[in-house]
Amino acid sequence: MTERDGIYGGQFVDFLSTVKALDTMPFVAQMAELEWHLDRISHIYHQPRFDFKRLAKIPEEQHLNIRFKLAKTCHIQSSNVDLISLHTDLSSPIDTHKTASNHPQPSHTLILQNSKGESALIALTPQQWEWLMGVEKGHTLAQLCELKNTQLPVLMAQITDWIALVCIDDFRTSP
Fold it and tell me: What is the domain count for the chain?
């Protein structure tokens, strides 16, 4: 069961992934997924609830056991095309020359709710993508630090930014 099950229209992305005629155009299902999450996220009422006081009470020797949690108003997506540029082009007035072939580079995208409650797109670097995938999977800070080219100060600065963007809205510790 996926997060889209039981939600009106959410299974359309899964359906598109099974259409044989679209096998050579995977960007169609990827764009549908992006659009689905843009719409879904824009309809969520979310109050930031990150508990900085509780975080400050965690003993230093437990810091690497922290597991951050992605907000429900956040979705990460990878694609074989530049989804943000393609979305921008397809959202502008109709031009028959705008296709996925104009955006061939792979991309990693963060879809989140901005401070006005609207959904927004942010391009991610491959490193940021790896970190957010780790956060989504429930990895500890220690496990995130094991990822290639990860330095704790850089990772912590990025996590601070994601908390400010309300992309990360909770955490827990584990022994």
Answer: 1
